[in-house]
Amino acid sequence: MEFNLTEEHLMIRDAARDFANSELLPGVIERDEIQEFPNELVRKMGDLGFMGIMVDPKYGGSGMDTISYVLIMEELSKIDASASVIVSVNNSLVCYGIETYGTEAQKQKYLTKLATGEFVGAFCLSEPEAGSDATSQKTTAIDMGDHYLLNGTKNWITNGGRSDVYLVIAQTDREKGHHGINAFIVERGLDGFHVGPKENKLGIRGSDTHTLQFNDVKVPKENRIGEDGFGFKFAMKTLSGGRIGIAAQALGIASGAFELALKYSKERKAFGTEICNHQAIAFKLADMATEIEAARMLVLKSAWDKDLHNNYDYSSAMAKLYASKVAMDTTVEAVQIHGGNGFVKEYHVERLMRDAKITQIYEGTSEIQKIVISRSLIKG
Fold first, then answer.
1. Which of 128, 134, 356, 378 has the fewest CB atoms within 10 Å, i.e. the most exposed one?
2. Which residues are catalytic?
3. How confident is the model at residue 129 (pLDDT cuts 50, 70, 90)?
4. Element containing residue 376 per DSSP (H, E)
5. Residue 206 burial (CB < 10 Å; 0-12/13-18/19+)?
6. Pairing relation of β-strands 269-270 and 273-274?
């Protein structure tokens, strides 16, 4: 077992940390306040290779491993979880899905632009009645010979208003159940494709979250991913990797809040000494640091499993379940350590607390992670 990061990993982590502090930090409070999508920052992240971290360089990607990906995600998420979720969806779900399961023509047409940040991607699975129950797809894709006719509604779609490419999961043959589901690459601007208003969210307010509507949208046959009926398996395998990204995001939110709380506790004085010298605060810091380190080990283990091509369904579910809990617990304690200052925006921890909650919900709720984990345990 080797617990030290390589020199390359350290350089990647430091580059992401520098970018987060120099580029993401200025204006992060204002972007959250007005729900502004960071278009210019996305372009810069594309230039740095953050939008196609694990994509093969022949398709314009950085060709890095999953450990590099989670290191980048943690550093970005310490400062701006809205920016990091854009990176997560583009990498874990969209780029990974097309590179792993798409045709060469699909990779040349879409992946090359997604990996460089020229395009932004979205993953469209959730529906009003099909969130955690992904088998209950009401969106339909009827085979019309040379194309599919897409009808339905997708909601809670991250990058929904800004994306150029959408991976849409839809039911083609309802009698076949989840074996009748397909995945499609849908381009923005097709006739009948409508993007609804932006959701007014509790957290990650700088990211774009929209409802999408498809009304007789013609999707070319060549835009189906994989064989007929592969869509449900495609969604489940892709989401397993997505959980690693969200686990890393949760870890970053927790780490960022802890660093702010530690710094503040060394500056704020009460009863004649810095508050970090009071056992009530010192013990909070000890618990926070221990839980964050445990979460980090789970996140890195899941990334390691993916890099070694082990089955990472179990480890990624554990990582997301625990890291998201630590994110919530840590951010709440960070606000408490800041006292009244923690309740105002300029100290950042209130935003991190709001951002933390979604990590227990999207890309599989904590309850779904427990189902995945328990099934793995029972099957042996």
1. 378
2. 363
3. confident
4. helix 366-379
5. buried
6. antiparallel
